[in-house]
Amino acid sequence: MKQFFELIPEQFLKAAEGCSEQAITELEQTLGISFPASLREYLTIFGKKQSHFPECHMHGCDDMLRIWEPLNYMRALWEDAGINTGFMDNIIFFFNFQDTYFYVPYEAGDDPAVYALDIGDEPTIRKLNDHLSTYIRYWMEQMLTGKYW
């Protein structure tokens, strides 16, 4: 039953393929964390590659481990430059678009705030919305109106 994403437009659901509950649980075990309820639900609906996310984006269950590869490289560079990267210890990256990585903090409730980390010489963090579910609905509206990113 959808709790956080009940208002998803039908054209998104037709093109969507989610991860199985088993795949999500295995990913949580591999990462050693429990996902917030809204992220779990998001992954059950949108957790696989699909037409809404170009192949070049890292997204969902299949990519959530690979997302860390470039981030670990950047983290080492930032730490060498004296930049505190402790903020990266308690977050879950779930989507990558170019040099922007989207994440939610874990242990922040069922529908946590969503942030964007822009990588460069210094990390830039932007809060996108107070709730992951609200941001995803906003993003879908932007897609439907042609205002993507």
UniProtKB/TrEMBL annotation:
Database matches in SUPFAM superfamilies: SMI1/KNR4-like
Record domain Knr4/Smi1-like: where: 18-138
Pfam families in the record: SMI1_KNR4
SMART domains referenced in this protein's UniProt entry, alphabetically: SMI1_KNR4
Entry protein name: Knr4/Smi1-like domain-containing protein
